[in-house]
């Protein structure tokens, strides 16, 4: 058999194989530039033409990419990856995102099941890098950081095939991401600040269902925006859409085990055996023609559990003020029957605020050590115990019970924002509104009905105060089932309880959130302590003055609910912080001009403004933290300094009144404090995460 000349071809093949090996082994990184032609000629000890043919062959397969005037770059680390990339480059942006939705939801699920502490640290670092790039308005860095974040999620799944597939898709997915970032879409869609945090939170909580739902919700929001803004030539043909809809309907009719793929391609399969029987059906990414896409299940709690958990949060919040506020209407009776001085009686309202501030730093440690559910159950037990102590006919027992109640409320104050962050990440505005509304509602209820209940039932002041313990008992019973779910303390979590977030106190954003919390609390508690006295000095009766304070609290319920709900929908948070301060300023100015004649108007303005401010302060804690751990620490920091500052407000305002001999200077002081409150509110409103490790 005659011999064939194969030397040249074989040499090219050998060079190709060697280059492929360099790429596969990672010595030539995807996205990196390969050595220049003279270097390759010398290193491989072959001719220039051989190198050129090998490079040309790898360019043809898609593994390499020549860039005019800038050399040759590695595009993919395998021929398969190159083929996938070539196909996706021909796809529309929406199609690429549908592929992402299918891939990333499984990556998030497996990451929640298999993640390690090192994976969590890498995810937090990637999330912080992404937010820094957004803050610096660096589009290229932001896209790189976003891709790095999702590659880190894929790596945390500990599935080498999945991670490699994601690497193959990364270039095409980068192009799709550029389409989202560069299109005229709302910042909330392009940045998706809370959505990425929700993914990390679910992975940290080792909740695969929540992780999958968070990943799907994140991508569906972008797909909906792309669908709404894509050019006509990207839209799928009507027959294809109708066919997909028919396939979905057929699959639905086949039985309850059939599910519709979240990618919107009309494919599906049997339900996963590890999914709960009552798991909500996944919404299709593509809506039927002429209609909006169905809502995507929100990350965190869903369905009946979300309703039950939400009711529990509202009941917990309702208990965080009545046991303390109820003391004020009974202060005269307590002083007369116990023989305490006025100064000693005033301590009954000052001590809880000091507890809020001084005990706030230990709350995150308790939450990490025992779990948030168990810790919150313990806060209700403390409120019940403190209320029972105050039944004893003893001044010591009265103060001891007040301190115990203050301790329970201090821990709940800190942990509840973290719970909202974890379980209601996609509905944080609504839940923060309900939470703060419950705070105001509990306070208004206690202020309005404590004395009527005492008179109607003929109770002693001890028994009247104890009545508010029954509300805590109800909350304790309703919350008890929650202790069997979600946060089980692992050994690593127990060790981590001794290690708070480092560097948080060096974060300017954390101090802006803290200052806003402190300034609005100071304004609220100082005004609440002295507004009835201002009105009585202006000629109103004591009963009417007390009613005005209750009326203001009732309006505060409205402001506290509406503010976080409309943030980002109708007004940005910074504008709403300014509006809240302007309402308060108008109310204080009215108190200077005509306190008695326009009392209803001034109390309405103050109630709405102060209600909006406290809701925004709580919302900032939830939104400015990248994960649950940071939320608890930021809540602790903000409430520690905030309530210590607030505790000084009534005394300072009273001192200024005594020194000036009237209420003009104290009210001017309250007006002046609104200026730094607005400045801090504008700073805290910017969509960033606090820094810390």
Outline the structure in words.
With 693 residues, this protein is mainly α. The protein has 4 domains: 7-77, Winged helix-like DNA-binding domain superfamily/Winged helix DNA-binding domain (Arc Repressor Mutant, subunit A, Orthogonal Bundle), CATH 1.10.10; 84-245, Four Helix Bundle (Hemerythrin (Met), subunit A) (Up-down Bundle); 300-499, MFS general substrate transporter like domains (Growth Hormone, Chain: A); 506-693, MFS general substrate transporter like domains (Growth Hormone, Chain: A). The protein is built from 29 helices and 4 strands. The strands form 2 sheets. Strands 1-2 form a two-stranded antiparallel ribbon. It is elongated, with a radius of gyration of 31 Å.
Largest beta sheet: strand ordering: 1-2
The CATH class assignment of the largest domain is: Mainly Alpha
- At CATH level 3, the topology of the largest domain is Growth Hormone, Chain: A
The CATH superfamily of the largest domain is MFS general substrate transporter like domains
Roughly how much helix do the residues carry, as a percent range? over 70%
Beta-strand content bin: under 5%
Mean of residue pLDDT values: 75
**What does the largest sheet look like?**
2 strands, antiparallel
What's the structural domain tally? 4
For the termini, the CA-CA separation is: 72 Å
Tell the overall outline: elongated
Going by helix content, strand content and strand pairing, the class is: mainly alpha
Strands, total number: 4
Low-confidence stretches: 1-8, 185-191, 231-299, 486-499
* Rg of Cα set: 31 Å
What is the number of helices?
A: 29
